[in-house]
Automatic annotation (TrEMBL), chain A:
Gene3D superfamilies: 3.30.70.1730. The lineage of its organism: Eukaryota, Fungi, Dikarya, Ascomycota, Pezizomycotina. InterPro entries: Ribosomal_uL10-like_sf, Ribosomal_uL10_bac_type. It comes from the Eukaryota. Belongs to the universal ribosomal protein uL10 family. Residues 32-64 are annotated as: Disordered. This is Uncharacterized protein. SUPFAM superfamilies: Ribosomal protein L10-like.
UniProtKB/TrEMBL annotation, chain B:
Its main location: mitochondrion. This is Large ribosomal subunit protein mL53. It comes from Eremomyces bilateralis CBS 781.70. It is found in: Mitochondrion. One of its GO terms (molecular function) is structural constituent of ribosome. InterPro entries: Ribosomal_mL53, Ribosomal_mL53_fung. Keywords: Mitochondrion, Ribonucleoprotein, Ribosomal protein. GO terms for cellular component: mitochondrial large ribosomal subunit. It comes from the Eukaryota. The lineage of its organism: Eukaryota, Fungi, Dikarya, Ascomycota, Pezizomycotina. Belongs to the mitochondrion-specific ribosomal protein mL53 family. Pfam families: MRP_L53.
Amino acid sequence: MPSGSTSLRRIAQRSISVSSRCPRQAYASLATAASSSRSYDPTLDSSIPQAPRHLPTQPPSFKPPEFRKSQLLRQYISLLKSSQVVLLFQHNNLKASEWAAIRRELAAALLATDKDAASISPDTPPATTADSIRFNVTKTHILEIALQLLEYYKPPQLSSSTSTSAPTTLAGEEPAYTHYLSEYAQRSIRKTPPHPLKPLMSGPIALLSFPSVSPDHLASALRILSPDKQFPAPRKRINPDYHEPAVQSGLQKLILLGARVQETPESQERRDARFLDNWGIRWIAGLNGLGGLRGELAALLNYSGMGLVGALEANSLNLWRTMEGRKQMLEDGEKGEKSE
Amino acid sequence: MSRVSPYTFVTTVPTVQFISNICLRRETVQLVHRYRHPHILRSPHPQPSIMITRFLTDVSASFNPFSPRAKTVRSFLALLPANARQTMKVNVKVLPRTSAEDGSLSLQFKDGKQLEVDLQRLKIKEVMEEVDRHSRKLGRQAELSDG
């Protein structure tokens, strides 16, 4: 017992010494002094600026941002916003080796197109390059929501509460955030009409995205991924790699479904014209690219120039011919007189 | 005299391990797995569905991707395994958006049975059931003839 009582006493002493060292009492005395000198002012709290809870570039999202779904939605929206043409493919159980082989062939074909374009016009930097074209597998349902948001949700400009067009929530308040991942955006697409590409949004979907409309690149991608009579696949003699079993078995399982072309001010009235089927895609790819157009223009100028030169020359040529004919006649007459 | 417990059958349900030792067919394993873990069917992330495809010899499909009916055909094509083209003929035709045809799906089995799927009526689950029903019959016949 004596040992136990001494230890208890020691603990008590230590706790007393700790409390005496603690500066809490000093703060408490200060606080009481302050409250006594000035009464509590409720308007003071609102005037104190609140520390921001998030970065200005990362506003809070409706669903938790650490979810993969949120990040994928964000990624798909940015992909669709930054690419003017997107081709949608269905991929039926492709193996990793087949994906790798197809991506390799696609990259090689697009690089060759880049080189052709560079040889035709070396000064102008191309809008579409081979490394900016991506072939990605997507989560279908999240892609559908991203398409829906881009089609029907226009983020309103948040202004002061006095403006009449300020967006309001169901409760009638102005929403705090209106970015694509915000609650306001998610709620506002609930009662919109179905997206024109909605029937395509089932099963496994892969996206081939082009940053700008480039018929040359589109045509060379179609030659690799979905060849037909108009866009034939490369011959075995020219490109033997394309005819490897890994590429061919993979391509049999890839189906081109349709395409989405990004909204422009001209295309706002005709919404369905921006969602193309197989034939629409081939029509765009069949358009003459920049190189082709330049060739046509050069041929046209050449031809008309030749005509112009001919027309301008014609008068003087006629004059020269008559004069020459007359000279010949006179010379012949002189010869005749001499001989007589 | 001891009575047989009414729970005997319940207690002797073969485990997944046991079944997979005898027979490694993935559809069988999945059936037993479903029996033993019914809560998985109720989960929001169900297991990917598997169809018996080893008795199919010919699949010819055509669909208009912009028609809502195409979903069944496309889901069916997605159910075929990665090496499907080595064991069966697969013929896929994509129709233009404006086509009047509604698409079709016709199958042929190893015993020569033709199956024209009614896309107006059947959803993918029902198509799978119909295909599996005939495939199981063929499977039983094959087992009997082997044994």
